[in-house]
Design brief:
This protein is mainly alpha-helical and 121 residues long. It has one domain. The protein contains six helices and no strands. The protein is globular and about 50 Å long. It starts with a helix and ends with a helix.
Length: 121
């Protein structure tokens, strides 16, 4: 099992290195790989792609960024929305992404609070 974990860790490192190489590539060339990485089940890979997309202001990836953000919120520990925001580089993203991300955080927080109240009564 330890060997498998090492293999997976190395594969993630390789994917992140490949994404780093895309940072300077033409947008049209990088778009498919960034889109695929944003959908990756490994949050580190998705976060790296999000940072690149946000830094380059790739507007075509806004829907993909929001899906990745939403998925990270689903898998994050309760109250970890700020970490998900930071991981997705929302602070450097377009105003549209920041606004949509903030709305998603507020909505999820409200839903969690309602859910907790249902079981505490």
């Amino acid at each position: 099992m330890a060997l498998y974990a090492l293999f997976v860790a190395r594969k993630v490192e390789q994917e992140i290195e490949q994404l780093s190489a895309l940072a300077g590539a033409p947008a049209l060339e990088a778009l498919p790989a960034l889109r695929k990485a944003l959908a990756d089940r490994v949050n580190l890979v998705a976060a790296k792609a999000a940072k690149i997309a946000a830094a380059r202001q790739v507007r075509e990836l806004i829907p993909d960024l929001l899906r990745a953000f939403d998925r990270m919120l689903e898998t994050a520990r309760p109250g970890d929305a700020a970490t998900a925001l930071e991981a997705l580089a929302i602070h450097r993203a377009t105003p549209e992404i920041r606004a949509a991300a903030q709305a998603a955080v507020e909505h999820r927080t409200e839903l969690r609070e309602r859910f907790c109240r249902l079981f505490s009564e």
